[in-house]
Amino acid sequence: MPNSPSDRAAGDPYGRVYDLAVIGAGCAGLAGAVTASERGLSVALLDTAGRIGGQFYRHPDPAVGAVRPEALHHDWSAFAGLRRRLEAGDVVHLAGHHVWTVERQDGADTRWTVHAVTGADGDGEHPVRVQARAVLLATGAYERQLPFPGWTLPGVVGAAGAQAMLKAGLVLPGRRVVVAGSGPLLLAVAASLATAGARVPAVVEAAGYLGYARRPAVLAADPQKLAEAVVHGAALLGHGVRLRTRSAVTQVHGTDRVEAVTVSRVDRDWRPVRGTGRRIACDALAVGHGLVPQIELATSLGCATRRTEDGTHALALDAFQRTSVPGLWAAGETGGIGGAQLARVEGEIAGIAVAAQVRGEPGPARDGRVRELRRRRERLRAFAGAMAAVHAPGRGWAEWLDDATEVCRCEEVTAGAVREAVDAYGARDARTVKLLTRAGMGWCQGRTCGAAVACLAAGEGHLSPPPSPERRPLAGPVPLGVLGALDPSEPSATPAGPAEQPDTDRPDGNAGPRD
After folding, report:
1. Which letter, b or e, does each residue of 51-90 get, where b requires 16 or more Cβ atoms within 10 Å of its Cβ?
2. Nearest Cα to 133, choosing from 117, 110, 107, 166?
3. Segment 244-288, tens digit of pLDDT
4. What is the pTM of this model?
5. Torsion angle, CA of 160/162/166/168, rounded to 10 degrees?
6. Cys staple from 502: which of 123, 208, 465, 510, with CB 3.0 to 4.6 Å?
């Protein structure tokens, strides 16, 4: 927040032009910020949270009284190292800053203006502006949810949400928790919950793990991932947790909250196999089907995207983490889901590249450290691609839904209403469904229901629609009072990037290959 120690040390943090503004203080943002600062740049680090670390290194406030918060994390030493470098450097950390748009102001010296709202929930004190010569987007990801009957009952939480509850508040979502969905995060969540004292009767994985065995070279290139899987597997085995693959929670039972779930076998397309449903008693369900890159801010600026192996969209980046819009870099999950280690590597590459450009130094391709980081990034990206392909949602998952199942919780739009829009009114895409049913018009702006709506609209098409070609000036919720408080005498900003959205189905967008 504006009265944090780092702000006081910098005087007025909004009255200067920084060399670099970093948006997001997770693994990628921290690595990029400290690297650029150590190479001589003035850096502002903006983040919505009050504490650094992002979602991966989310840890409890000191008031919670946690004695060893690092016990709930892997590779805590890497985060501790970044934290020490941040504290020892000159980065201005602006916590509690909710960025809602970024503008480019052209002139003799092109600058970027980052607009944010301060306060714990973005509803607080006042709007602020941070100016910089370059911007690094490290906005992370959010959890992908696929609906099923009963998923709106109290006691159903996101898998990543359950882990966040445990890390930030030392709170369990229930005493007997089924963990379900797809992706390696499930193993980590289940192991954490079981270690913390929850009874985990089953981990329900819709995909299988044989897909990894078909990629031995990728597995051999990243032994750390295998080691993590062994650690999680040993923890689950020690707590008697049963792993059920090729299965999914197809219904939640209960009146006022979760009382049980039905777990059904699914085929390779995730269609439920009739007659295989089994009921498991529980008082909570932690469910998630992977992560989705949070790229709304980037696409509002015209950045090119690419479709990933699991059907989502990520930013198309070059070898040095540059987006297709000059002056904008990105790192971490915005370029595709890959985990904390990859995010740190990409953040460091971006920090070095920005420093070279701002200071007018030789290109980063000549930097030995960059060459080493790029080799590491390629290994980690290869594993991330394999992971995305193995756990990509099957096209038949929509058969879990009956017509009464709410797909959009914000606007209470059911699967039946979406199907009616498609069958009776000819809707063939998520945008048309939204206009006909209001699905996706609520507070989350389609982040929760977008994948489901897109899939229902397209039949057996992609789970994630391409980003809208329209430039949305607001990347997140912002009070009307904030817009009204903007000074109209400020120089008008021009939209960044090309006039048209590039072909998002090209593997490299219009930004060239990643490397």
Report:
1. bbbbbbbbbbeeeeebeebeebbbbeebbeebbebbeeee
2. 110
3. 999 999 999 999 999 999 999 999 999 999 999 999 999 999 999
4. 0.88
5. 60
6. 510
